[in-house]
Write a structure and sequence with these properties.
Number of domains: 1
Strand content: 35-45%
Largest sheet: 7 strands, mixed
Radius of gyration: 16 Å
CATH topology: Deoxyribonuclease I, Chain A
CATH superfamily: Endonuclease/exonuclease/phosphatase
Shape: globular
Number of helices: 6
Helix content: 10-25%
Structural class: alpha+beta
Length: 243
């Protein structure tokens, strides 16, 4: 049964304020996912020792990766990635719209891979939305629109996941569940799945949305000595089947 994971790694700086790329890789390795969606990765940034965190984590996990920088300043980048050891191809990587009245908000983006599972392509879209509600709503509509989920290439089984900075009571959530199912709501089995803040998680702001062709077996957010300190989020893990 395939396993997918979404994880905001907070540039690999943990709740103890220690920078440790290896610790993040260990969290992921212990969970044995087939597909990994990561947010808040630093690539060659001075503040995190000029390490390409996407490459380093992928190398430790023996996976290939695609990275999309939401921010690029000269050689320094910051953004999101999808990692997998399965056959894959990049479909799209692009910015999401911002909120014009607040032009200084942090840029956001999304990354779309087609991953082959048991001979079928599954479309995987990873994103990290902004912090301002109006900005989030604009970005959620963009993801639900013709450039992403509404694109003719996004046919058959597909998964949208990431850090949406929005709970199940938000307009963002309602926008996305209008066309997809939220994995927690349709899981055959589930364990605690609040993800933020990692030391004492009370909020569900990381989500995995699935299409009708995907059955969800198990959803959980592992809470242990390692995960509660490695980042400011817990990873969210989903075991699924193709129906």
């Amino acid at each position: 049964m395939p396993r997918i994971l979404t994880y905001n790694v907070h540039r690999c700086v943990g709740a103890d304020r220690k920078l440790d790329v290896g610790r993040i890789a260990e969290v992921i390795a212990r969970l044995k996912p087939d597909i990994v969606a990561l947010q808040e990765l630093d690539v060659r940034r001075r503040r995190t020792g000029h390490v390409d965190q996407a490459h380093e984590i992928a190398q430790r996990l023996a996976m290939t990766f695609h990275f999309h920088p939401a921010i690029t300043v000269e050689e320094e980048q910051y953004g999101d990635a999808i990692l997998t050891a399965l056959p894959e191809r990049l479909v799209k990587a692009a910015s999401l719209p911002g909120y014009p009245p607040l032009p200084r908000l942090e840029p956001r983006g999304a990354l779309w891979l087609a991953v082959e599972i048991d001979g079928r392509e599954v479309q995987i879209i990873n994103s990290h939305l902004g912090l301002v509600p109006r900005e989030q709503q604009i970005q959620a509509r963009a993801l639900a629109g013709p450039d992403w989920l509404g694109d003719p290439a996004c046919q058959g089984p597909h998964i949208l996941l990431g850090d949406f900075n929005a709970t199940a009571t938000s307009v963002v959530y309602r926008t996305l569940v209008a066309g997809m199912r939220e994995s927690r709501r349709c899981a055959a089995r589930k364990a605690p799945s609040t993800t933020f803040p990692a030391p004492l998680p009370v909020l569900r702001i990381d989500h995995v949305f699935v299409s009708q062709e995907i059955g969800v077996d198990y959803v959980f957010a592992p809470y242990d000595t390692l995960t509660r300190v490695a980042s400011d989020h817990l990873p969210l893990v989903v075991d699924f089947t193709l129906t």
